[in-house]
Design brief:
The chain has 284 residues and is an alpha/beta fold. It has two domains: 116 residues, 3-Layer(aba) Sandwich (D-Maltodextrin-Binding Protein, domain 2); 144 residues, Dipeptide-binding Protein, domain 3 (Roll), CATH 3.10.105.10. The protein is 40% helix and 22% strand. The strands form three sheets. The chain has a six-stranded mixed β-sheet, sandwiched between helices. A five-stranded mixed β-sheet has the order 4-1-5-13-6. It has a two-stranded antiparallel ribbon with strand order 2-3. The radius of gyration is 24 Å and the shape is elongated. It starts with a helix and ends in an 11-residue tail after the last strand. About 8% of the residues have low confidence.
Length: 284
Amino acid sequence: MKKLISLLLVLVFAASLTVACTAQAKAFTIAVPNDTTNEARALLLLDANGIIKLKDGAGMTATKLDIVENPYNVTIEEIEAAQLPSMLKDVDYAVINSNYAAGAGLNPGKDALIREGAESPYANILAVKAGNENEPKILALKAALESQAVADYFLAHGSELGAVGTVANPTDGYDASIDYDALNGVTVSVAATPTPHALVLNEVVKGILAAKGITLEVVEFTDYVQPNNVVDSGEIDANYFQHVPYLDDFNAQNGTNVVSVAAIHVEPLGMYAGKQSSLDALKK
């Protein structure tokens, strides 16, 4: 009898160990941006696709502490947004901003396993220091970004850039209220991340402004902090890289006073394969 009981205990232990090992084997790591707004945005994307469930009311300030159901046993790893593409080899999946994905050679339109829809409220904006919104050179820059030429650029290159234009009524790129003759010889500087922001500015907007004698100086940054700091300090006239929820949080956290003057495009956030090649492994 004792031998039988011992044998049963061994079998139970072995079964428990097998279940534990299986559960451990099925754990997956998903890396997400570590800034407040983009982390929440990433978690909302995972929630919308049934990978996790967030508590009721969790919205633009959601964190991984708001996860109430985790059916696929995922671990959320928070990483600085610009570093996410280089981390793909070390995690199962990563939720990446399209500009960083495209900059790393990924095609957001084809490579993302899941994506936000084009109706995402996180439109990328042109922003300036508060009080400078109506300066003629800022209005000229705004008009150029709201042009049909920029809209056409997004239509032609949107798939690889992961960007969709949001300007409802594109113009010829010029503002009739501006005295462009007075701006001849003026330089307007813009802080931008490389893809697609600097591309749009250099390949489309620069030519529109040059036709009126305005020089566009594009200063590239690879982070989300300095572009707002240099605009707030007055070192650079404007920036083009972020969405309003991020800007609002940045101003609140840093005491800066940078404001949006135009929404230009949206970059649907996407989840990309790392160690796993598809969602099949996650959902088995």
